[in-house]
């Protein structure tokens, strides 16, 4: 009964979901493309395949976590056909950038019984790997009924999410029973899934795959070349900022400029729809800037560089002397700091880091990250780091130690999946 009520609610909400797609398509037209795929209308795949793996990764962060896992698995299963679904066009773009035509991409079907059934009939996967924690009842039940093995990988369940899921236990218990295995990030995540009724034998701590991030040597070289082109000036990056953080970034940079007039802000908003707001904030503050879309690097006359493009965050981390990681001074849960750590740039964050709490805890314990509460504190930390090479190196070394100590999740996850498949 709970599943039927859930499905009925989704049918009622579908027109509003489509309106939201159309609305988001005003800024990013890709949201209005391939809509039929979201209802399961994908090409029919050959049923005589030697095996077909379906990996679902919601957006950019999940895609980046999935890529090393997919590459490692494909290296030992060369005959395997891999299909990756995302929810967002930005996730699709990141997948294309990293894996190109090595895999097939589609958008995830909405969790409507007909859409899910249509997708499974056409794709016919043997396994489904869901990155992190995307629990879609109709999808998981349908996979179970078709004997598709389902795994939640790099799975996390924050206390807030656990409390929310507990309210829907009547719906979720049979859904989670359909999952073949859950590779949890840490013991607290494992206990949370067990608390939702998952068989303890089906949940194993395998670590966080995001620690296994490896920087392409070509990317590192490109970052060094770009840094040389920008000259010997202090550079800081405001990465993955959300609405509400524009004013903080502007105020912090103005304070930095008071002490370091040649400082450059590299601003990378989290979503394309934030590009215009960031540009407007720079205009209103009277800061001179150039946009990445102008295909020209900033000169000594520019005080900021607005990165209004996708897929270049790792490159931009590589040119910075310090990084503020956004989504942390508003209620967005923060963003992954390990990309900055891998590119050897000191990390500054706000206090709202619920989605990456364990990672930040490990970094802070070693002195590899610094937390600030507002623009004044951000400016102070930036000035301290930009003027202090020894402090920068100490934070970089500490973060590298955290990365090294926590690597190995890819191998542990693949071993766990093989044992439960």
Automatic annotation (TrEMBL):
Pathway: Bacterial outer membrane biogenesis; LPS core biosynthesis. The active site is at residue 62. It comes from the Bacteria. It is an enzyme of class 2 (transferase). The keyword Transferase applies. Its EC number is 2.4.99.12. The record marks 132, 210 as: Transition state stabilizer. One of its GO terms (biological process) is lipopolysaccharide core region biosynthetic process. InterPro entries: Glycos_transf_N (IPR007507), Glycos_transf_N_sf (IPR038107), Kdotransferase (IPR039901). GO terms for cellular component: plasma membrane. It is a single-pass membrane protein. Pfam families: Glycos_transf_N. The keyword Transport does not apply. It catalyses: lipid IVA (E. coli) + CMP-3-deoxy-beta-D-manno-octulosonate = alpha-Kdo-(2->6)-lipid IVA (E. coli) + CMP + H(+). GO terms for molecular function: Kdo transferase activity. Involved in lipopolysaccharide (LPS) biosynthesis. Catalyzes the transfer of 3-deoxy-D-manno-octulosonate (Kdo) residue(s) from CMP-Kdo to lipid IV(A), the tetraacyldisaccharide-1,4'-bisphosphate precursor of lipid A. This is 3-deoxy-D-manno-octulosonic acid transferase. It comes from Ectothiorhodosinus mongolicus.
